[in-house]
Amino acid sequence: MKIRRSLSLLLAPLLALTVAACGDDDDDDTAGTDAAATTDGDGTAPATDEGSGATTGTGGAGGSIVVGSADFPESQLLAQIYGQQLEAAGFDVSYELGIGAREVYFGAIERGEVDLVPEYTNSLLSFVLRREDPDALPTATNVEEQVAELADALPDGLEVLSPSTAEDKDVIACTQEAAEEHGLETLSDLGEASGEITLGAPPEFETRSPFGLVGFREIYGAEFERFVPLNIGGVADALSAGEIDCGNLFSTMSIITTGGFVVLEDDKGTVPNEAVLPLVRAEIVTPELEAALDEVNEALDTETLMELMVRVEVDAAAPDVVAEEWLASLN
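^ thats the sequence. predicted structure below, dont judge the formating
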């Protein structure tokens, strides 16, 4: 259907790769440049025609597709899943992985440098709306409404396809020690204890609402003892080292389980749905492409995504290998 519109020492090298929020609003000017990092899943440069753009070739039965990703492991894994699925359906696929933050890869797909990138419903919607109005917030409260709002908000030439049921949402995770000492079970509890809490999160968290310091102040009355700006990998490392009490992570990160962190309940519904789905250039969409990606998204749920990320982050398996193995298991 087309819809328009002490473990830290072991895990630190892997978590350092996780430098961009998958499920954040990305209304900031985060790291990244317009020069995309062009790689295949094994980290090597793919063989592509010099100076070639996206979607003009006919190398495969379905035409040529350039699949891009943000610069964090889950996005690269999802790009490999979508790309390999399209290869199996007869498309000639190349990859532009690790492009950068949303501002960078969104520009790349707008310019036609890539044809498809994995996205997250609320984060994409928030980003698109704030391009026109920095104070704009989505009115959608569930995935169906988010997709409908995206159909109206996306610029001409871009659309999203059917979403999966897999979600990767922003969470606040705390060390066991901090959770026990301050009785932390919910975000409301965090607000009450905030004066004694050191919180780590990406720099943009400081100015965000509702999921950010501004929103937490308004919703929970939170005034934290200290805020430490870190990338997502740095948040996980700092939690493991006990350098911060709580931090902003993503719900599918394996370090939450392996590190024994306590994820606080979002008792006031501060974090919207964040369903995984493909953002595509409209001109590449065919019934064959939609059918191939719908098959993947029907099988991809949150539990599966968490299991696949353990393979990537803990077992240190390459995203292309993990994607290939999972896709083979569907047949």
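Residues 1-59 have pLDDT under 50 and may be disordered.
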